[in-house]
Amino acid sequence: MTPRRIFLAPDCKTHGKTYGKTNTCGFTDMKRRKFLGLLGQAAAVSQFTPFAFLPAVLENPGRARSTDTMHWPKDIGSPVLDSLHYAIESSRDVRTNYEKIVEVASWMAYEELPMPEYALPFGLSQADPDLAIDFVMVADSIDTAFTDFAKHEKFQVDFAGQHWSDSEAEFACIKRALDNGVPFLDGKFLAKITRLELNKVFEGNIEMPMLDEKLAVLHQVGKVLAEKYDGKFHNFVHSCSPKLYDNGNGLIDRLVKEFPRFNDVSMLDGHEIKFYKLPQLGIWFLYATLHKAGKFRLDDPQKMTAFADYIVPVALRLMGVTSYSKELEHAINSYQLIPRDSRWEIELRAHCLYATALMTDEINKLRPANMQIIIPQIDARLWTHYHTTTWPHHLTQTIMY
Prior knowledge:
It is a single chain. By secondary structure, the chain is mainly alpha-helical. The chain has helices at 79-82, 85-89, 98-108, 129-141, 166-179, 187-190, 195-201, 211-228, 233-239, 251-258, 277-290, 311-318, 326-333, 343-366, 375-386, and strands at residues 12-14, 17-19, 52-55, 69-72, 94-96, 156-159, 162-165, 265-268, 271-274, 322-324. The chain has one domain. Helices cover 39% and strands 9% of the residues.
């Protein structure tokens, strides 16, 4: 279960409602946007183009039937969306209801749907942007699993006179370590950090969940940073094209190639399905935090998809946009672990990306040219409204989200 991190942020105001401190329910790490304060501004980023149509194969619930027609989102130049065709077309247990998407778009299009802007904790946004890049990307690399799977107990810590939980606690621990002179943002240190040292950094109410997996990730990430980028993520970022995808030299292109921990893909019947949750999320945070001040350039944010984790699938399910087979519904509602890379997990995540892309297109049909939105704005709208829901979400033990 994973965090949509974010932390130490002021309350978030959006759509006339205020979102205060993050609440968690069950296994959910409910946080991402709180790590940063959500401020609203409408974006004028993408332009609507007509839908493409594919021969479809969706029946109840998601069973193939060749006489149906399936709508496909417009081409935004995203390898993630492009990879979803087989997973959507062959779905057995998850279905996306296009008519419901049109219905939801008919009223959601007239909401503000702001472009998120974030403020890093502890004044990091106002500090050296290279420090902000290092902080965000190191933290993003281990932004997974902050609840003990056996005991259902959340990782928590007291720091700077406040109490923090889940990924908020991760950020607090990293800042505490930096304050104590631990070079936690230096790949040369991370490549050799011991389990004892990492356990000390993340000293809290319980041992950091999946500590050994996080240790392995930091060793892998630190080794690459130390060998190629003088130990710093900002050197990696500056060496990339200022685009997500750019003939292999874009930020996402190179993150998933050079750092295997970010290569969030699954194989389904021989087809590679790309999700790229954490690499996209890390770059999105940097863009939303630093670009307005001219400290981070990203030329193609419109190629972002949603961030496929736990909460947005719940939002889509509760809105009737997606539906599940009885077997999958029962597994989720009874808190059964759904294995990483299983068909169930792949279908849940694929339909999350697919449905949010379709919804973005339908909403843009109804908005003027200067108020067009991009997919992360829909992701933000769904996450902020549903991150405290008590409705069960799927449970998967993974380092990918």
